[in-house]
Amino acid sequence: MEIPEPVRRLAVHPFVELPRPPDVEQVGLGGAVLAINPWPGAQIVSIVDDGPSDVAAAVEAARAVARERGKNTLGWWVAPEYDFVAPELEAAGLVNDDTPGFEATENAMALLAPPAGGAVEGVEVRIGETWEDFSAASRVAEQVFGLPPVPEENLRERYETYRRPDNPGRGFIALVDGSVVGTSFAAFSPAGVNLFGGSVLPEARERGVYGAMLQARWEAAVERGTPALTVQAGRMSRPILERRGFEFIAPVRVFVDELR
Predict the structure, then answer these.
(1) Fewest C-beta atoms under 10 Å: which of 24, 128, 150, 153?
(2) Residue ranges with strand state E in the chain
(3) Is 119 inside any structural domain?
(4) In-domain check, residue 113
(5) Are 103 and 145 found together in one domain?
(6) 240 and 129 share a domain?
(7) Is residue 68 part of a domain?
């Protein structure tokens, strides 16, 4: 199936194509854009237009902004059309490697039809709305992705931002026997719904939790009138998503810049 160009761009360049969340600051670097968010993990630098005319200068500018904001890790998002910057990023000390929240290679994928599998018995999936939902989902993600815990005071601030009407996305939680065992995020755009952060606790795997969250987000996309899902899948998720019907579009490399 041919992937429409807006959907392809959403899959390959999500941090540029998605509406900006209210808690994300975007800083132009001349051929690149740094997105600063309040969460732990890498802050993503997306290359835009023809890319930086001086990659080394853009790297230093991104580092300066990150340090001012108290951030320690940057991830340069390098789609295939921007592979020409890779040698200069490496010369500046960046490494194409895994970092918490991202893998060395993220696989841009898209789905334009209902996912295979459908609903899963024994797994409840709903949009997280309450503080209890939000807190439980955050703790699941921290455990699965190995992220440092967020103090409750900061987490409550993020919850208030999450509830804002201009927030272009919603978190989905999966429950088994009343306990939150999985979490995932859906970022809404005019081209479709991009999937972020699907995570399932180890003790709840092999029970259809991941597929149930996928089905719920497809239904949300259809309800919005944008029946397309896009995702940037890691090495474990890609084969699972291909079995569900997702089509691989392109590999995207993440070059990590540790500022410590």
Answers:
(1) 153
(2) 25-28, 32-36, 43-47, 73-78, 95-96, 105-111, 124-127, 169-176, 179-189, 192-200, 229-233, 247-258
(3) no
(4) no
(5) no
(6) yes
(7) yes
Strands 229-233 and 192-200: parallel
Question: Does residue 77 sit in the same domain as residue 128?
Answer: no
* pLDDT tens, residue by residue, 200-225: 999 989 888 999 999 999 999 999 99
Condensed to tens digits (0 to 9), the pLDDT of residues 111-166 reads 999 999 877 889 999 999 999 999 999 999 888 877 788 899 999 999 999 999 99
Q: Which of 105, 97, 100 is nearest to 12 (CA)?
A: 105
Classify 227 in phi/psi space as left (phi over 0), alpha (psi -120 to 50) or beta.
beta
What is d(CA 42, CA 99) in angstroms, rounded to the nearest whole number?
Answer: 7
Specify whether 138 is located in the same domain as 182: yes
Output phi, psi for 156, to 5 deg: -65, -35
- Tell me which amino acid residue 67 is: R
- The residue with tokens 């959403």 is 10
